[in-house]
Amino acid sequence: MEVRDLVALAATGDRAAWEALVARFERLVWSVARSHRLSDADAADVCQTTWLRLLEHLGDVRNPDALGRWLATITRNECLRVLRHRTRQVPTADEEIPQQTVPADVDARLLARERDAALWKAFATLSSRCQALLRMIATDPPASYEDIAGALGMPVGSIGPTRGRCLATLERAFAGARITA
Amino acid sequence: MAPRFHRSGEDDDTPLVAELGRLFDTVDPVPESVRIAARAAIEWRTLDAELAALVHDSTVDEPALALRGGAGPRALTFEAPHLTIEIETEPEQGAARDTLRLVGQIVPPQTAQIAVCNGEDLVATSADERGRFSAPGLSAGALRLRCRLDDERLVETDWLTI
User: Fold this and answer.
1) Mutation target vs A (from B4, B23, B44; most A CBs, 10 A cutoff)
2) Which chain B residues contact residue A84 at CB under 8 A?
3) CATH classification of A1-101 is 1.10.1740.10, yes or no?
4) Banded pLDDT at B68 (limits 50, 70, 90)
5) ipTM, 2 decimals?
6) pLDDT in tens, A49-85
7) Domains and CATH numbers, chain B
8) What is the mean pLDDT of the segment spanning B85-99?
9) Residue A91: pLDDT above 50?
10) What was the pLDDT predicted at A100?
């Protein structure tokens, strides 16, 4: 079913339509939150904020084709808000310190194949910007360059060239990681 | 010149990108709790909520505290039939704009999904197993809390002004 039909149905309270919308975009929303290096708890809150806001505005969605970009932008803005407030305040002892969201050492049970472990290690050597961009590119279903621009606050025209550079860097690092694995 | 509306999936037949995507799905998939909460969000609209009425406000009930030294947190208590929500609000230190931070406690302690409605904004957070939650960066103005408990009941507070 088309996104515009799902939006219209969900606006009437149709649960199946709402769940289909969530299923369609939840990886996009999650990957935006994780690209901003939020902790598990903060990323979860940011995603839920995005969904609740979408729910509030379902009736206002004028361009369903741009829904991916809208969701990515809302998620990004909420990530920035969380990050701004964290840096301003002195964390108390029982507040979580945000984890590195792209760990260099991954649980070996998750990446049984040496090749996967090597790719992950190579990915961890990339700049934050490349990691965030490639994560968005690799998320299924594919995000448009406009979605990604909204998610990362980059000009649309720079996405293509940056993607090319980041992939080339990843390929080189991957080749190196496999030799030393 | 890059196309204005480019669907990256079309030229991402790069095997490496596909491989990377599979890796993310393995090491950092959307957590089940996040997937469930997102789907359940529609119930915020469709279920009736119990009202948690404001039964205590330190600025009203203990005005002397406000006069003495001024800068203590404002304490508010909301009562619903089966639970109480206690919150404190206070100005954030070192904030660029005048923002407020809220900390809260659900009694009896329990986990819950919480939507903090602050004027036009809506921010989601959650209460931990001790019923504690917090929300920074709030603006002075209208505030209401909506709580979705684990047994799927909805509780919402009165609107008030912070």
Assistant:
1) B23
2) 137
3) yes
4) low
5) 0.83
6) 999 999 988 888 888 888 999 999 999 988 988 887 7
7) 49-161 (2.60.40)
8) 84
9) no
10) 37
Residue-wise pLDDT for B138-158, tens only, equals: 998 889 999 999 888 999 998
- The beta strand positions in chain A, using DSSP E, are none
Q: Which residues on chain A are in Cβ contact (under 8 Å) with B38?
A: 22, 26, 47-48, 51
For residues B148 and A71, what is the distance between their CA atoms, to the nearest angstrom? 23
Residues of B in Cβ contact (< 8 Å) with A106? 27
| Residue B48 to chain A, least CA–CA distance (Å) | 14
Q: Which residues of B touch A123 (CB under 8 A)?
A: 20, 23
| Interface residue B97 vs chain A (CB under 8 A) | no
Distance of CA B100 to the CA centre of its chain: 14
CATH domain A104-181 topology: Arc Repressor Mutant, subunit A (1.10.10)
Q: Where are the domains of chain A?
A: 1-101, 104-181
Whether the model clears a pTM of 0.80, i.e. scores above it, the answer is: no
Higher confidence at residue A53 or residue A113? A53
Is residue A157 within 8 Å of A146, Cβ to Cβ?
no
Q: Is B130 buried (19+), middle (13-18) or exposed (0-12) by CB count in 10 A?
A: exposed
Nearest to A171 among B16, B27, B115 (CB): B16
Place of tokens 């969605």: A61
C-alpha dihedral over A24, A30, A32, A34, to 10 degrees? -160
